Amino acid sequence: MFSALKQPAVLRQDALASLVVFLVALPLCVGVAVASGVPAELGLITGIVGGLVVGSLPGSTFQVSGPAAGLTVLVFEAVREFGLGMLGAIVLATGVLQLVLGLLKFGRWFRAISVSVVHGMLAGIGLVLIFGQLYTMAGVKQPRSGLDKIAGIPGLAADIATDSSALTAFAVGAGTIAVLVVWKKLPAKAQLVPAPLVAVALATAVTALGGLDVANVEVHGLADAIQPPGLSDLTSLGGLAVLGTVIAFTLIASAETLFSAAAVDRMHDGPRTHYDKELLAQGVGNAVCGVLGALPMTAVIVRSSANVQAGAKTSLSRILHGAWLLLFAVLLPAAIGVIPLAALAGVLVHAGCKLVPVKELGPLWREHRGEVVVLGVTAVAIVTTSMFEGVVLGILLAVVKTAWDTSKVQLDVRELTDGRMVATVSGNATFLRLPRILETLEALPQDRPIEIDLSGVRHLDHACRTALEGWAARHNAPGTEPVLMRHPEPEKAAV
């Protein structure tokens, strides 16, 4: 980074890239904050910390951090359940937990989280975001639960059709989405200006020039928005529900950051991300955000990819983007107050649609149907229950699926010339395959000498061994030679 200050060409390129990232980040910071049910300034504070603090720390050179749409639903639920005052304490605890995990070198292990769970998590967030922000687009208060949001869509459609103010606001949001979709199809030169900025600017201009009666973002000033957690908030962190929220924040923010890092590393030929250091940097950033009472942060793929595509050379670009956000928030806070809420809702509906991996579902279903089931169950659980419960269910299902896939076992029965029957078991014999194994063995005759050959078993768990020994002890009828079991070698059984 410091070398860039001595190279005018690199400094100029990083400065230009930082402006692009700033223009992308500005509407998203405000939009994520509003959708999370907190003052717009808190989103800007998180973006500033993500640039100035996290941007200056080692970990990833080009990854840009800030408030993310992926945490919107969880933050909204946390604020609704515990209050805005507890948000800072929860985010602070999240940062501390990330620091501990980073110091313990857990960063690399977050890469082991099932991709299907992450995609399911993002899809569930996207669906809740879409259905929730449709109400905001119409200026209507959104229901609390995901199911209520979906069930209320017919009523929302009726309100839009019969209420002129709801129709006007919804049209502003729909127009914003249309600009976002069309802008990506324009020539590359036009796309140098970020689509979210163009869409929000056009919606703001149309609303102002047309004198449309729609709700705008409320602005109270950056300093007034800072609300450090009090002692009572910190002592409340011991509650089970609060701890569950902290763990959910940590898991989702860390996983999204490190998966984003893997994606960003594929976009450039520069230095690779050091995952443990990046986790430490995120922990510092979230701890600072918690002290300021701001939103939690994570690395954001939209801003990060914009940084790479804009030609950033060093980490100076992401630091400067935080400086631009700070200058804007201090010098031009009133500019935020003219932005229509419906336009920001449109930006988030569009972002929610991009979180649902529609294009990947077809190929994934053809090649790995079990992964689609994990993805779908995770997404549906998030929509119908909560973020934390959905992610935990997805992880458990992924573990069960992996255990099932790896516990493949073969059972071959053959008869020798002397009438003796040999059942050969090979593979990984675990309790998950016991029903099939026992059904096959119980079908063997009880009046013949039987031998169970387990020498080809790579892994034999305790439950399976106990069940097989129990079957062998009782299977053969009195007067028949007892079942003989040939156990696997100790070193094979321990694999």
Automatic annotation (TrEMBL):
Record domain SLC26A/SulP transporter: where: 11-377
InterPro entries: SLC26A/SulP_dom (IPR011547), SLC26A/SulP_fam (IPR001902), STAS_dom_sf (IPR036513)
Protein's cellular compartments: Membrane
Main location: membrane
Keywords: Membrane, Transmembrane, Transmembrane helix
TM region positions: 15-35, 42-62, 82-104, 116-135, 164-183, 195-217, 237-259, 322-351, 372-400
Bilayer topology: Multi-pass membrane protein
PANTHER family found in the cross-reference section: SULFATE TRANSPORTER
Name listed for the protein in its UniProt record: SulP family inorganic anion transporter
Species name: Streptomyces aureoversilis
